[in-house]
Q: What sequence folds into this?
């Protein structure tokens, strides 16, 4: 179980969200409150959009609280759309390739959750990655695999449909192997224009997900960055959130048919 | 505040103490119970004596729970006298050079605690390191500094006296700078023959220290490795422990005059 | 293209071969002479057999010439059968999981060479890994893939046959994709009892491979450790070398039918 | 001996100089041509000025050619004044703290060269660092020490004078210890407004230094980035170069009195 944050809105320096709030993402990496695992010290990553075609990406296997590079980068990089993630491994190794966010072309993806009994379905799901993307995958996590399934299922044409199909495909594979453990999927995706977040689980314990809009800033997070609890809106189970460049927010029960 | 373990006795594989006990040192790195900081994820190290003149040393900046190399090394290295340490930084950077144990010639040293307001006395104390040792120091921690003070004060001739003089010297410098913060020093030292542990603090909160002798095995630890609480003996404040190669144990209030 | 060394014989400290010779493996990592790439700075690894069921393994992404841990480990670890490898990446990322040697159960494997146009055949070859081994694979290199193909092809029953079948399988896949680039495979394998080295290429440029027996010591290397050129015996193209625990050496043209 | 590059002018993406030229700094890290050591694989760093008070800093102990983070950062960070450095250690350890550039407040500094027999004068020179800066020093290199000497000698008031005094101080200490080895100092310094480069040596072998002005771009480098040799101007021995924000270039023999 991991912790993550995404932001869309007027450009801000990354440290204003990643480091400065009382319960910032880096503070959460040491003491998460709503996570199954309080310590998220198995690597971290940031991804941000600027003027280039592809987003910037910085991932490291150290704990986020311990990396002087991250402090300097977050202090000096300004972005109007970025992701940050701190990782608690669910079994796969600690390497940069296994750290979130994952990037492909203009897309960023990050995830909190897991495919239950992943080893039983890994091979079968990997076989569904389209040839076009197969050799771009760099790590061994279930999270990156889901990202490549979404790409293979037409993410570039219809994100909504690709996410749904990825969830259905994972669950179908789990059923074939009679897996009782849950599939938990609280994730965030962007193409550099808008962002899409999903809070899904095959059981009734989807990892928490909140957002807040204030002025020209929308923050989407695993858990609130401060104690102003009234200001944070929790997503319901199986709800998805879409925030466009002009900060129009829409919510959807897109995934209810999956379970 | 850190957690550490030392062992002297019949040769054992390191993982039998570092990984296998329910509350092993690596388990403590994620969830320490008697420490001020529950997470000790700012690097770790092992040092062990074999047949060479100098001890082996493996230090890494990753959290101990996350390092496949440590697992393999601890599973394959057998020793009759070794140290293991997990670090929670008290302000100095995370680099291998700042990880314990520190080694010089045949000596190993590791420490839990800190010099209060270290920055105020750092320069003055560094100036007391003997020329012979000055360029061997690799890092910037107060812990390594104390080790080099002990070496400079004749550790090779009279360990007892060198430790006492190092403590007195640190406290005198702190007094000169009118430092109110405490000096805490729960530390372990070995020359490859015997081991010496100290539980000292300038205030009444010395970090915890326990030991247990069973058969031909003596373990000295920051906190017990298992719940058999009756089997672990706590050292008193300002008490030192000496364990010789034949496992003769002696305790001493060697430091009472320092405070 | 990488450089490697393996040793079987009376126990020696690893540094006597890895660091001390004039043209030691670590010296080769900075200035290889018979390799296509003179610098092998993309990670390294050592694997050694002791009294445990599985070999010890230490792999790191730093250049070998730069790692204080490697120096200390090689100085303090003694073994009668060990592998050491310095890596120059042929395209896959630098992570510990991609460093040689690779270990599975009691087996160690390391490789110099590559599958030409690996991306074209990667998927097809990965699909041939037996379910039993599929999730044990940790990295993304062609080298580790070949190791898992050998395991899948019965390495535990008949190493000779499994190696041959792996080579034939790789070449058949390359032919199906009409790949003109060469398959180069100068590799070493051990089960903890004996070691087997192979110098193979689909073209006439197999990476170099030498061995030397002196007293109770057999060394197998990518290039000689010293200038006593008469003492090193080069393997022929497509020749394999087998050295048993009692240091009986046999050579074979086992692979001639493959090409 | 290291390789470095600095840039001042219209904002450019860092990778246009660090990666893209045929003989880019990263290409030089594998195959330097004018350096004593062809491989500069002992860490690297970039420092850049943007809109913050302090420059951004990213330093890592991997070889520069091997770091995916560096590629992404250099592709996405744009700056009108930046430094990049690839390191070949002259004896001190490989840690991020020992990688260039070094930063203090608004200043960046990087260096190619060394203080001959540094261990003999290290203590004496460290004693000259002003109290104000003493605890900001993080590493153990001679390069960082010289930077802190310059700060202590009034860099913020008169850079020219501080550099000269630092050189004189180092040489005086070397003379007192009767050191015959050379002091070599090809270095670059910036306060975020202008940049100052120096090519100095106590003997007649100062490390190479070139610059080129084209349009609104000035590049200062250890060795040319391309084969257009006529376009690169070499600095003379003991010459300094100053480039202001408006790209006015002045050269000076400021150091001739030092030798």
A:
């Amino acid at each position: 179980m991991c912790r993550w944050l995404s932001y869309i809105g007027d450009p801000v320096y990354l440290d204003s969200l990643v480091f400065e709030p009382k319960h910032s993402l880096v503070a959460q990496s040491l003491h998460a409150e709503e996570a199954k695992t309080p310590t998220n010290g198995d690597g971290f990553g940031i991804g941000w959009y600027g003027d280039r075609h592809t987003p910037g990406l910085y991932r490291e296997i150290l704990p986020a609280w311990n990396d002087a590079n991250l402090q300097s980068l977050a202090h000096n990089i300004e972005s109007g759309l970025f992701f940050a993630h701190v990782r608690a491994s669910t079994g796969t190794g600690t390497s940069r390739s296994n750290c979130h966010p994952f990037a492909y072309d203009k897309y960023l993806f990050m995830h909190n959750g897991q495919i239950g009994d992943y080893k039983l379905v890994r091979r079968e799901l990997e076989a569904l990655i389209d040839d076009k993307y197969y050799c771009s995958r760099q790590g061994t996590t279930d999270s990156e695999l889901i990202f490549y399934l979404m790409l293979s299922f037409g993410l570039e044409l219809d994100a909504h449909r690709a996410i749904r199909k990825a969830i259905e495909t994972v669950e179908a594979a789990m059923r074939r192997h009679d897996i009782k453990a849950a599939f938990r999927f609280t994730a965030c995706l962007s193409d550099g224009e808008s962002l899409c977040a999903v809070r899904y689980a095959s059981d009734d314990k989807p990892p928490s997900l909140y957002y807040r809009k204030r002025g020209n800033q929308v923050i989407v997070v695993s858990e609130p960055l401060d104690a102003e609890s009234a200001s944070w809106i929790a997503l319901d189970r199986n709800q998805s959130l879409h925030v466009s460049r002009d900060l129009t927010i829409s919510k959807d029960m897109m995934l209810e048919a999956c379970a």
